Amino acid sequence: MTIPANPGAGPVVHDPLTLPGDDNVDEYTFCVELKGNPWFLQKGKMIAYYGTVAFNGIGHGPLEPLVRGSFHSPLHASDWVVAEGSGKMLLADRAFDVNSYDLDEGNLTIRSGNLLAFQPSLTLKQSIVPGFLTLLGTGRFVAASNGPVVFMEPPLRVDPRALVGWADCPSPCHHYDHGYLSGVLGGLRALTGLGGASGEEHQLEFTGAGTVLLQSSEELLPERPVGGAPE
Amino acid sequence: MFRLQGSKVLAVDLTGDAVKAKNGSMVAYDGEMAFKRLTGGGEGLRGVVSRRLTGERMTVMEVRGQGTCWFADRAAEINLVRLHGDRLRVESENFLAAEAGLRTGTDFTGVRGAAQGNGLFTTTLEGHGQAAILSDGPAVVLRVSDRYPLTVDPGAYVAHQGDLRQTFQSGVTYRTFLGEGGGEAFQIRFEGDGLVYVQPSERRTIAGDL
């Protein structure tokens, strides 16, 4: 029995030699090359690997020095593991777009569910904004977005649900359109929290110098359960 | 003849021959087509019985005619697979269509299916011809050889073809019970010679939270 190099019409067949090292396989899959160096990885985002890779939860034990140096997010500790070993590992998340970014002495804040993996040369901290994480230092990380990421520059107001993260600029503040609070209806709304208008009265406002990352969808899929398969 | 129109619609040109396809997956056709429901995956009485017994349910129709028929299912990505006398194993929920020359059947998968929540059995396709399988996001095709065994997350597994042995491996340790599990508690290891199809998304599996 022989299997042709390219069965059917479409798909490319990958093996450990043709898979890229620390780069995208396609828009939705990222390949991490492990050569004894550890990576922090969000639980359950590994889809396959060649070689020997061990996944260990973050806690006490041999990983202690690594965690002490690079992981300062107790709220999210149960969502993260350390992958160690040698081989090539594929990461993907809910068939979202996946991309890697390099930080150079940088400071980037990202929605916690969108961050898939990062190198321990970066430090992960909880952002002051709930639900976001901040990466500091130099290194590479992998993030998912629902649709391709768009880069924008402040000053700018964005829809909270389209926001993926921001880099190098001050933390955002909430902005509510003035009409939201004025008049009788506005007063009622302010009192009861009921009613609304266009659904766009609430934005996040960015000022200063930096970059804001947006995804091309306002849909934040639930963090769990992860996307299902076709039935 | 199977061809993809975009990545989510399968076009099949028929000249009096037939294809098997997932029930209800036809979205359009031109020419003359007849649709016939095949009970038990079109495998005869034996198929009816074994599919009932194994729970590997698959409602399949036979499409026969002249012209072009288009198939799609829930905007899932479609992957074409060509078989040359070898065997493809695919989860019945990921099956879209197969040329009439391919025999379908059921096969025991062992514990892997249990970890996926898909039951202990899987659907097989054998013979010469083309098949189309569904995935959530385009499937990545990974080659397994003696030098390069592959380990796959059960939630991302879609199908495999060729001469592969699969073993189930568990990463459950005492730390899992302390709430410090590695998140990849169950894995399938493939050894031998063949291809494995994985999707860039994970189904919810019982192991997903460990």
From TrEMBL, chain B:
Superkingdom of the source species: Bacteria
InterPro entries: AIM24 (IPR002838), AIM24_sf (IPR036983), Trp_RNA-bd_attenuator-like_dom (IPR016031)
SUPFAM superfamilies from the UniProt entry: TRAP-like
Signal sequence, start to end: none
Pfam families on file: AIM24 (PF01987)
Protein name (Swiss-Prot/TrEMBL): AIM24 family protein
Organism ancestry: Bacteria, Bacillati, Actinomycetota, Actinomycetes, Kitasatosporales
